[in-house]
């Protein structure tokens, strides 16, 4: 026989849980208002990127010569470019490209850096020596120069741009993860896991890696804005996303020098969205650092 359920108690518990969740969110918003603003900005940009096809008011690839360099109007809110294409629609579709490349490069760079840092810090010895010299060689080259070189060697495509940016993000992540791994591998619970018969790599993946997630999350959020900015720089220089894919940097590349005086909206709006993406990701990274750092929570 099934026991009787006190639905009033269950509903009150559910309500308490919901209230607790909303209370936690409200507390975080009050405690970290700039971080909440960063979350809002990034959520809005990601929403635009995901639902670009539904939001765009016009076809971003269709040219209208009669509308060339049209000023902002009720029909074309952000004006039109030198080929008569709607700037707002191209910015919306460009969000998918720019943010997609930024997110992809950040995730791939995080995976590369985590794997190298964990292997280097936990294994030590000659492997640590070789991997650290490799990271130092990469880190010695300015990130934009290294990315330009990789993009030129690999060729212009979405995947090659993601890979080129990811490689520049690997050294810092790898060195941070290695530093945390060197500290964690000396702790008592790692010795206890060895005494229990666990393999070295199982200890690394099950006990070391989860304890490096806090700095990893903060660095990943901070790197997102940097990756978006590097993609814009590559596209501006003609080494990033090829046509016909619109990206914010590509829009600046085709209009910044020639039309800045006659059609400033071609520069203002793509630059504004690049700034918003970098601004939002930096605010988010700072808030995550404060939340996940015990020393920050103590004050």
Major sheet: none
Total count of domains: 1
Strand content: under 5%
Distance between the termini: 54 Å
Number of helices: 14
CATH architecture: Orthogonal Bundle
Subcellular location: Cell membrane
Family: Belongs to the binding-protein-dependent transport system permease family.
Organism: Caballeronia mineralivorans PML1(12)
Membrane topology: Multi-pass membrane protein
Can you summarize this structure?
The chain has about 300 residues and is an all-alpha fold. The protein has 14 helices and no strands.
Could you walk me through the main structural features you see in this protein, from its secondary elements to its overall organization?
There is one protein chain. The relative contact order is 0.14. This protein has helices at residues 7-31, 33-50, 52-55, 87-123, 125-140, 143-154, 158-184, 188-195, 200-208, 213-236, 248-253, 256-259, 265-292, 294-297. With 299 residues, the chain is mainly alpha-helical.
């Amino acid at each position: 026989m099934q026991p009787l359920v006190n639905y009033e108690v269950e509903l009150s518990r559910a309500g308490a849980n919901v209230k607790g969740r909303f209370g936690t969110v409200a507390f975080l918003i009050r405690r970290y208002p700039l971080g909440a603003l960063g979350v809002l900005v990034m959520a809005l940009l990601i929403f635009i990127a995901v639902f670009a096809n539904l939001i765009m008011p016009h076809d971003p690839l269709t040219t209208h010569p009669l509308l060339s360099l049209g000023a902002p109007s009720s029909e074309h809110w952000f004006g039109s470019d030198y080929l008569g294409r709607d700037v707002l629609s191209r910015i919306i579709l460009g969000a998918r490209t720019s943010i997609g490349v930024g997110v992809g490069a950040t995730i791939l760079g995080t995976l590369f850096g985590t794997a190298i840092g964990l292997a280097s810090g936990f294994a030590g010895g000659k492997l640590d020596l070789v991997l650290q010299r490799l990271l130092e060689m990469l880190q010695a080259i300015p990130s934009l120069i290294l990315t330009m070189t990789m993009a030129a060697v690999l060729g212009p495509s979405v995947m090659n741009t993601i890979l080129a940016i990811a490689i520049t993000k690997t050294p810092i992540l790898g060195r941070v993860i290695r530093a945390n791994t060197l500290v964690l591998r000396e702790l008592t619970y790692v010795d206890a896991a060895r005494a229990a018969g666990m393999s070295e790599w199982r200890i690394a993946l099950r006990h070391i890696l989860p304890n490096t997630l806090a700095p990893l999350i903060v660095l990943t959020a901070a790197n997102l804005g940097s990756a978006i900015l590097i993609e814009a720089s590559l596209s501006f220089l003609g080494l990033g996303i090829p046509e016909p894919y619109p990206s914010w940097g590509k829009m600046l590349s085709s209009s910044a020098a020639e039309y800045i005086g006659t059609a400033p909206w071609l520069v203002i709006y793509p630059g504004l969205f690049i700034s918003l993406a970098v601004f939002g990701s930096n605010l988010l990274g700072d808030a995550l650092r404060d939340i996940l750092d015990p020393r920050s929570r103590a004050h």
